[in-house]
Amino acid sequence: MLGETAPSTQLVRRVNAGAMLKAMRGAGIVTGTELMARTGLSRATVISICDELVRLGWLQELENQRGAGDYVKGRPARRFVFDDGAASVLGIDIGANKITTIVADMAGTPLSQVTMPFRTYNVSAAERADVLDKIAADALEKAGVPAESVLAVSVGVAAPVNRDGEVLTVQEFWQSFDVRRIVSERHGWHVLLENDANLAALAERWQGTAQGVDHLIVMLAGDRLGSGILESGRLLHGQSGGFGELGFLNNVDGVGSTYGIAHSAVSAGRQAIERQQDTIMLELCAGEPEDLTAEMVFEAAAQGDQAAVDALDSVALRMAKVIGAISTLANPELVVLAGGVAASAEVLLPTITKELSEFTFTPPRLATSTLGEGIVSLGAIRHALDYVEEHALDLSPASLPKRAS
């Protein structure tokens, strides 16, 4: 029994330290009494952990200064402030044709964001790693952050990832590109891996339209569909990371694939052009339907082009079936459409909402994300910060170089 006590006590202390950091991030100057109220911990525990976090470099203790006539009975309250610049984290989104990297401080404030084109196929793993190195170096330089100050890196990938951060080897690209090992070996950083849609869900609940929503689905809905699902505020993975994968849509009548809004809009637009040559879409693509883009379809619809409006109505009906199917399974309060297509997808919501009750008995609220194309990288920042909070007692920012002023 005595042998089990020390590890148990240390685990509780780690949990308490994480709760303290979470309570102090962005809170400014706080006293021990205020931390007791926010965490529910005893005074002795709060002060003990604060002293350790000060020693490690997470917190700064401020001097108590009293002016003349400011007499207060008893010992002055100890005041602490979270050191936002104690260290840094990186969030990286490896997309189909580009990488987006965000560098953030320990408050989660982005210090820089860099996007770089990236060919996912027909290049070696070493070449892919070189692209990652360059974009990370550019982002760190732009942020004025030394590479040695990075405590954690989170990488979002378009593949299922299990709880241990391992990619399911269902795609040839990821079989030949062990991003976690390569980045870790090259830089010595602790690298986390997570599915891109899962990271989008973390970002949306953290800083997006889903703040405070515990039962949530966030769908990356560009060329392909992917979903991150939160139940009672907890990200769901399933046995091997496949929770939220949408391959079952191949068997849903009227859906038939995991193609997203952008792909579906182009397909419907081209079909409309074949049926009706008198359409603004044909003008926008200079008479070449193969050059039609989703942006052109949405633009033509905004100008009142009936063929484009009809095409987008068919896209909205398909998305109603998609959302109805996954909502029947997960029963979310809110579904958010996210990614590069989110701004355009706003016009689809009325039709999706109107049709949704035909495909599920529990239709959720719908919204589009305002976080833009950086949503996965932002979610990766949240993921990295969660790791740092959980392991705060094992990390010592006091020994790291600080950000350039």
From TrEMBL:
Residue ranges of the TM segments: none
Recorded family membership: Belongs to the ROK (NagC/XylR) family.
Protein name: ROK family protein
